[in-house]
Amino acid sequence: MQQRDRYKSIEDFLADDSFKAWVLTGSDPDHWEAWSVEHPQRAAVVEDARNLWLAMQVPDTRPTQEETAVALQNTWQKIWQAEDVAVVPHWRRWRSAAAVLLVGCGLSMAWYLYNDSSATPGITYTDLVKEATDPMLERTNETDRPQLITLSDGSSVLLQPESRLSFPAKFSGSKRTVYLSGEAFFEISKNPEQPFLVYANELVTKVVGTSFRVKAFSNQRDIEVVVRTGKVNVSSSQGSISGSDKGDVLLLPNQGVRFSRESLAFEKINDLTQEKQISQKLSNIERLSFEFSDVPVAQIFRTIEQAYLVEVDFPEEKLKNCYLTTSLSDEPLPEKLKIICSSLGPNAQYVIEGDKITVSAVGCR
């Protein structure tokens, strides 16, 4: 729930389901009451958001535009009737008018949010995870920086803030399947006998061994897949659910696809460098080169730190004369480290613990 620390407007709170539940039902599993006390600077905006929900008394079903108008009219009447009871200073009438305007804007915004979301197809992360046949582990990134996840097959995932990933403790069967809500960069360990599938809302991304990024937030209309290395097949899971055949898209390095959740249509991007909206938002791991020619090992570790936003602890003095020529572009992080340690000698090894990597070595060959 750390994402609420970044809430600045009433709309942020209105869009949070747990906040709505706290206001309307009193249920408080996410400790909104305690959070409000701990953040007195947010008291005004929290109170305004509370009053908007209470004024609307929004039921589980989406309000119609007519219902929104009636609620707004009733709010007007209550405020002006209350002020007719006594003589009210001029400045307070202006304050009341501002309050009504705020309520009106909030009601309109809430109606827009509810009805705008109804235009988005209904396949959600929760729905997908419920259909999983194997028990799933889940990682949620509630921090403000990417989190590194290493899967049982040696694949690595950089999970972005406000994102969730569900995956089995150990892959079994003929496929390796994970479920994503939000954004993540994947580096997949090669295994032609067991393809890797990422389910994200209405899209299924299928690979054997490659690196790519998927951006699939449930509150956004489009889903994006961007390929860094290898080959990726992207298809719509809507086809299997609705009985329609929407086809699929084959992506090569430096290509991507944008999928409209409303029209179920693909827009292929053949050259990412020509797509400023995407190319300007590429992360370090998508920009940096992992092609090394007679490069100090220390520099390679620095590149890994920048790409994965991790700390690499290694015996710098012992490795100061060690150089390496290798290609690590199409390898997940564990495989990258394995190749580096193999070049340093039989005694070199590594350990990944969260966002820290410890490398032990006595020197190089």
**Shape-level CATH architecture of the largest domain:** Sandwich
Q: State the separation between the terminal residues, measured CA to CA.
A: 49 Å
Structural class determined from secondary elements: alpha+beta
Q: What is the CATH third-level topology name of the largest domain?
A: Jelly Rolls
Number of helices: 12
Rg, Cα atoms, Å:
26 Å
The dominant shape is globular
Please give the number of β-strands. Answer: 18
| Pattern of helices and strands | HHHHHHHEEEEEEEEEEHEEEHHEHEEHEE
Q: Which segments are poorly predicted (pLDDT under 50) over 5 or more consecutive residues?
A: 58-62, 90-98, 110-119, 239-245
Give the biggest beta sheet. 13 strands, mixed
Helix content range of the residues, please? 25-40%
Number of structurally distinct domains: 3
CATH classification, class level of the largest domain = Mainly Beta
Question: If you average the pLDDT, what whole number results?
Answer: 80
Strand content: 25-35%
Please provide a written account of the structure.
- The protein has three domains: 2-118, no CATH class; 125-284, Jelly Rolls, CATH 2.60.120.1440; 288-360, Phage tail protein beta-alpha-beta fold (3-Layer(bab) Sandwich), CATH 3.55.50.30.
- 35% of the residues lie in helices and 26% in strands.
- It contains twelve helices and 18 strands.
